[in-house]
Amino acid sequence: MNKRLSFLSHNEKSKMKDSTETDAISDSLELLSTFLDSELPSVRNFKGKWSLARVKLTQLQTHLTDFSAEFPNASTTNPLSLHLLHSIFKTLNDAVSLSRSCQPQTLPNGKLKTQSDLDSLLATLDRHVSDCDILFRSGLLLENDAVSVSVSVSSKREAIRSESRNLITRLQIGSPESKASAMDSLLGLLQEDDKNVTIAVAQGVVPVLVRLLDSPPSDTKEKTVAAISKVSTVESAKSVLLAEGLLLLNHLLRVLDSGSGFAIEKACIALRALSLTKENARAIGSRGGISSLLEICQAGTPGAQASAAAVLRNLAAFEEIRDNFVEENAVVVLIALASSGTAVARENAVGCLSNLINSDSSSEETEGLSNLRITVVKEGGVECLKNYWDSGTQIQSLEVAVVMLRHLAESGPIGEVLVGEGFVQRLVGVLNREVLAVRIAAARAVYALGLNSGRARKEMGELGCVLGLIKMLDGKGVEEKEASAMALSVLLMHPANRRVFRKDERGVVSAVHLLNPSLQGLDKKYPVSLLALLVHSKSCRKQMVAAGACVYTQKLVEMDVPGSKKFLESLGRGLIL
């Protein structure tokens, strides 16, 4: 197959030898024409396979003809097309040589060897046809032709777009070495700037990367996972990854079981973005993904542990796959990671435990949820939470701990345990912190802890909790206002706390303003409950009426807000008196 053909003239041989300096399209078309007309008709062996080869060769001839007509400059100016054209030229030479070996009655290289060479040729021709299709569709040849006509300085964005198209095309055609080089360049481009990610995604990089995951294990495949993980970190690109559906999900789950530490960590980063939808969460749970992720939490690299815990944290938010966590004894693994992992891993593990024991606020605690909360306590969850809280964790990272405290406290008996373990002091200590999300979480935890525990209500009041919550009633966001009203609606069940509230001139007026129906997104039952606990005080009632409570509450009665009718009646009795 490496010998030059005797039927070619000396001039033709020279053209083949020096094809990089000549028109590769014309060379290939000339060779193809000679091959189809003079060589193939003389073949005596494997005629069926050669008929298939003729079909591929004819397709290739059409592509080369279009190439010559539509992109006359590409063969000498575009490196990617040059590489493809010279590969085609070499394959055609090999094809002619192979066809000549099939012309005698007796095969000089034996039947098996010749058949193997012919199968290889058919595969190569098929790849060339596919590569031509990809190159034509990429737009690179049109771009190159335009540049040759009018060279101008492109903007940086246009340069990135052009480079992205070039790399995406190179990932699909050419040798493994060429694809590996393109992958290295693509990774560099993506890591340089998130805007580059957005441009590459718009040029169609994601489907190409997903197809590359079908390849056998290799360094390039691992870098493909890294590229996908980078795309997953850019918010605007996540929807494109999600559109790849179960195909991408299954590839990444296989990486969890068989990839290197590097690939596993990158796969987890990508899965973190993909695990936010119920459909994908269900798929991960049903395909053994939770088990794989828990194994990584136990034995993976520090980075992989943190990323795996982040995926589990997302999954735990979906109640319907909670049983998968129970079956895998996830609580034990998560508590261990929350006690000994890196800072990020610990935060994600606590966040995952918090999501696991969360319940829909509109429903009662189920037996399964109650048992899960008890399991967390029995396995050392309270001690783990205490250590995490006291470990000097940054205030932003305390939010997950506060939320976990809240969910544990929603079970009355566990709430009493938490009070005994000193969590009242810890909770009040973060209520006035500067981070809004932590304040809101703390106020909701105050509500959960105080709802079932008179002792907690008393202690929180003694520690000055009421005044901080009054200040939050005037917070800028609806979420903060509602959380503070929630907390106060239980704290004011204690007489001493009501006395503290009444002494603050802002409290009643701020609470009444929350009744205003025009303030949307706030559950009115909480300010109603709060004010109902104070309405029997003459001075408070006068403040409420003066601030417009009667008008607001009448509208709330019409909206069927719980407790509003009784509260309005109490306000009315005060007016009659």
How would you characterize the overall build of this protein?
With 577 residues, the protein is mainly α. Among the domains are: 26-137; 514-576, no CATH class. The chain has 36 helices and no strands. Residues 1-22 and 145-153 have low confidence and may be disordered.
List strands and helices in order, with pairings.
Layout: H1 10-17, H2 24-39, H3 47-70, H4 74-77, H5 79-101, H6 111-138, H7 140-149, H8 156-170, H9 176-192, H10 194-202, H11 205-212, H12 219-232, H13 238-243, H14 245-258, H15 261-274, H16 278-286, H17 289-299, H18 302-315, H19 322-327, H20 330-340, H21 343-356, H22 367-378, H23 381-390, H24 399-409, H25 412-420, H26 423-430, H27 436-451, H28 454-462, H29 465-472, H30 478-491, H31 495-503, H32 507-513, H33 525-532, H34 538-546, H35 549-558, H36 564-576
Organism: Glycine soja (Wild soybean)
Protein name: U-box domain-containing protein 11 isoform A
Region (Disordered): 1-21
The helix-and-strand class reads mainly alpha
**Runs with pLDDT <50, length 5+?**
1-22, 145-153
**Helix count, per DSSP?**
36
Largest beta-sheet characterization: none
Q: Mean pLDDT, rounded to whole units?
A: 86
| Helical content class | over 70%
How much beta, percentage-wise?
A: under 5%
Quaternary state reads: single chain
Shape descriptor: elongated
The rounded distance between the terminal residues' Cα atoms is 111 Å
Q: In angstroms, what is the radius of gyration?
A: 35 Å
Tally of strands: 0
